[in-house]
Fold this protein.
Amino acid sequence: MVDVVYVAASKLDARYTRICIASVRHVYPNVPIRLLPGGELRRSLVDELRRYWNVGVADVPKGEYGWGFVKLEPLFGPRRERFLVLDSDTVIIGPVLDLASHHDEDFVVDDEIQSPAGAKAIYYDCETAANDGALLPNPAFLFNTGQWFGRSGILNRDDFGGLVGWDFPRRLTNPRLFKNGEQGILNFVVNQQWRAGRLRVARVPLLRWPGHGLRGVDAAAVAAGSCTPCVVHWAGMKKTRHRDMLGADLLTYFEGEYYDRLPAGRARKALASGRHVICEMTHAVHVKAAARFRAPSRLFRTAE
């Protein structure tokens, strides 16, 4: 049994958050859903989700968490709560919660197959650690942290000792070794604790990444209820305009369901879509400007 679904949310991903919530409610009208705010969220979004979609906000410390670190917070809850964590740029297809209900392990994760080069690039780098004189065992398994089932009370902050700076914003203490926000360190700690016999892990076919194809998963199959349960995750594949993305029909389908429930849904949708495009374009400009600003200082330090 899964007690709650957590959805990581940010200002930039508001459009995806709405779509993700609609996909969960499509299958589970009554399951508790709580936002995990990685920073300050727009009050209008929070009120809208609470009023029309029965979505709450997780009781976590307020602050700017940085990339992904807010997704660790459900682990430190006060009771043995079983939960699913989702990134905003996901949709669930079919009764995904059943995948965990059939297992009593502490973590239920995707059965990802990853190359050594991929593991080094997107999780953690055992080779660099060895060169630095530290021994990190090669991972027994790896999983993308945009979708995973866990249980609170199994891990605590001390289990991440020396890996995370817990002040705001959260940060990796060694970003040379651990990659992509919380993803590398969560994989490392779960592997470490699994080897020590402190927790149990089940691996199931959970993730569908559009880059590997979406055969059998489209809006028509969702409407017909004929899809194999999974989480579709646009990890690293988001574009400014949804219509330019693989699997765009899924985004359109659930976005339509979302605004069908709201008064003046068409007008709200148009405004939110325009705001999303503007935010994406502004963010891209800021990222490019920051990169150009940092480049000369790196060259200067190198010259020194």
Summary: The CA atoms of residues 197 and 221 lie 41 Å apart. Residues 274-304 form one domain.
